[in-house]
Specification:
- Helix content is 40%, strand content 16%.
- With 295 residues, it is an alpha/beta fold.
- The protein has one domain: Aldolase class I (TIM Barrel, Alpha-Beta Barrel).
- Strands 7-6-5-4-3-2-1-8 form an eight-stranded parallel beta sheet.
- β3, α4 and β4 form a beta-alpha-beta unit.
- It is globular, with a radius of gyration of 18 Å.
Amino acid sequence: MAVSSAPTSSNIKLVECPRDAMQGLHEFVPTELKAEYINLLLQVGFDTIDFGSFVSPKAIPQMRDTAEVLKKLNLPATQSKLLAIVANLRGAEDAAQFDEITYLGFPFSISETFQQRNTNSSIEESLTTVQKMVEVCATRKKEAVVYLSMGFGNPYRDEWSTEVAEQWTEKLVNAGVEIISLADTTGVSSAEKINYLFPTLAERFPEVEFGVHLHSTPDTWKEKIEAAYQSGCRRFDSALKGYGGCPMATDDLTGNIATENLIGYLSAQGEDLELDMEKWQETMEFSDVIFSKVS
């Protein structure tokens, strides 16, 4: 049963992020349980599932079984694509070995402090990694997705301005990146910032598909999503019930935008999301098995 109301043809892409939701959990989620949860999400009808990451198990122990999870996914039963996060060239090469993965995602922070904290490399070093990752993607028939992390500001007092965001975006585009998601890693974005930055970048780089990966408190999600949508965004990352956040960012995690809120908002705008809402409800109920200790 699909959500629909005066459907439009704007081609909304919803990226569901169980990886982001689970990566900060202190207790390890068993591989079988991860796979069962992701298999349910695969049946809902999302464009993409951000399902895991190929990073150091010391950095993100929760994701150390991503390759094993992948083996247990029922991909013939879905049209959803898979995205895996990588933090260096080795991770990109590891992920690229799997034909089942369509997208390799890289967190490119425009905050020097956070880039060091998140990937143990400088921004300039990370730009080189992105260039090499794009080459790997071209060779292995993958697509690169770069997250402009701390894209709306940062809590470290590193320099930030819309001009800084534009400058680094230009360098990423010149490196061959065709999909960029503006990431609000610690929830510091505002409707005003989104309303300016998103259309500015989209107009300057029309060959790039821009999206948003916003973090938010429960009372500010709508104004952020509304600003992105009205600015022309049609690619949205979110996580069921708003679980997750980046464990490398701050001690107090700011959660993802809740997918159910995003679905409700977009449906109210007349978007035909073509989601199986019965399967979505089943997934919502099953999520308690994984997240009950953090809800």
